[in-house]
Design brief:
Helices cover about 35% and strands about 20% of the residues. The chain is built from 13 helices and 20 strands. The structure holds adenosine monophosphate (AMP) and zinc ion (2 copies).
Length: about 400
């Protein structure tokens, strides 16, 4: 009898300590986004902290965005594992003509409206399974439905200093265990802003590259200083690259379509046309095809599969994609505006082009070290993070763990 009691006691001790051990070992993942940080910026010899990430962890040669290579569609692809046609954000700005509503990045009402966001974001998957999450800025993290946003999140304000954002992450990591997030998000926009303003090639963009490289160094040093350096997995990525705009790359849509009163949506490298009959659709397609210099035009049903950009009701009947460096101008008013504001760089183009590729670095206990690999795809980050956190991914995703899982230990 006494032996049975002793044995039960030992089993109890073993179980309790195993559970306590597991709790202490629960992994951490921080996803850091450098907006518009092109794949080749780390090779300019001005990013010592990225070099350190490479030797400590994993670096992919390029990181392929989803189409269109714009900010919101891609940040939401990263957290849902769904292409934009399935995650709902088919552009930074688009219409639901059925309901007469518009989604627009600068409009806080639409950005906070869960109506637009399809699929399940990483923070939803995590929180449902008991993993607390936190976001210091991430597209889609501010939706009003309480069960669709992270426990902790900040309303987007681009003027918040870098140091404050980083300290926000550190403060969250120091919360008592029962309140502490294990999945965190952090965002910086400087390389996108400078890339648009000065282009990706000159000296000016290097200032933004240096500045953001410094931030990842500061973040890692601070994590070390609170004794969590060997516990935290950091994934540093970007949503897309950047290309130089051609001085003569303006496609004047209002001149091409002069007699056609067709509904046009979109801007910059991607526009779409909503027609009211198959005859109108054919006419718009033919008119654009006849003048297709610097762009390619598709009927919706003929958009190549590799764009994964077709199966969504808000995509137009005809879609036009500009070649690198070209940009659509819809109205004379828009053209006039461009005279005062001369952007030098842009993105949103074919996501397979080299200029649209972003970066992917990862370091921490889950990752191999000193491991360089081929192109990774941003749609695969969702299942990767689920794997690290030990949570069950949503089954309805486009991402594939088998295309990225080899970077784990
Ligand atoms: P774009 O270059 O048009 O694809 O978008 C980049 C811009 O999106 C950045 O310069 C930011 O100002 C803006 N942005 C990024 N994240 C957010 C967010 N969570 N909420 C609102 N605006 C954002
Ligand atoms: Zn972006
Ligand atoms: Zn941008």
């Amino acid at each position: 009898m006494r032996r049975i009691v002793l044995r039960l006691f030992l089993i109890l001790i073993f179980t309790v300590s195993a559970l306590a051990g597991n709790a202490a070992e629960k992994p951490y993942v921080i996803i850091v986004s450098f907006d518009g940080f092109r794949w080749d910026y780390p090779d300019r010899g001005i990013t010592p902290n990225l070099e350190k990430m490479t030797s400590d962890g994993v670096r992919a040669i390029t990181f392929e965005p989803a189409f269109p290579s714009k900010t919101f569609p891609n940040h939401y692809t990263i957290v849902t594992g769904l292409y934009p046609q399935n995650n709902g954000l088919i552009n930074n700005r688009f219409f639901d003509f059925f309901k007469g509503r518009q989604y627009r990045v600068g409009d806080t009402v639409s950005v906070c409206n869960a109506y637009w966001y399809k699929g399940e974001a990483l923070w939803e998957t995590a929180e449902r399974q008991g993993v607390i999450s936190a976001s210091y800025f991430w597209p889609g993290s501010e939706v009003h439905l309480s069960y669709r946003h992270p426990t902790y999140f900040k309303k987007y304000d681009g003027s918040v200093p870098h140091a404050k954002r980083i300290q926000g992450i550190i403060d969250w990591l120091q919360l008592p265990a029962e309140k502490r997030p294990h999945l965190l998000f952090l965002y910086f926009s400087d390389t996108d802003t400078y890339g648009h303003r000065y282009g990706p090639n000159g000296q000016k963009i290097n200032e933004a590259i240096r500045l953001l490289d410094k931030q990842i160094g500061i973040l890692r040093a601070k994590i070390d200083s609170i004794g969590m350096g060997d516990k935290v997995n950091i994934i540093l990525l970007s949503d897309h690259g950047m290309t130089q705009l051609k001085p003569d790359g303006k496609i004047l849509l209002f001149k091409i379509l002069k007699n056609k009163n067709v509904r046009v949506d979109g801007y910059g490298p991607l526009v779409q046309f909503f027609t009211s009959s198959s005859q109108e659709k054919q006419a718009v397609f033919e008119t654009l095809s006849a003048k297709a210099k610097g762009f390619t035009v598709y009927k919706k049903e003929d958009i190549p599969e590799y764009f994964h950009y077709k199966n969504n009701p808000f995509i137009g009947d005809v879609v036009a994609v500009a070649d690198l460096g070209y940009t659509f101008i819809r109205t004379p008013k828009e053209l006039k505006k461009m005279e005062h504001r001369h952007p030098m760089g842009d993105h949103g183009y074919d996501n397979h082009t080299l200029d649209m590729q972003g970066i992917f670095f990862a370091a921490g206990p889950a990752f191999k070290s000193g491991y360089r690999c081929e192109t990774l795809h941003n749609v695969d980050v969702y299942p990767l993070v689920c794997k690290i956190l030990g949570i069950v991914p949503n089954q309805k995703i486009d991402g594939k763990l088998e295309r990225i899982g080899f970077i784990l230990k």
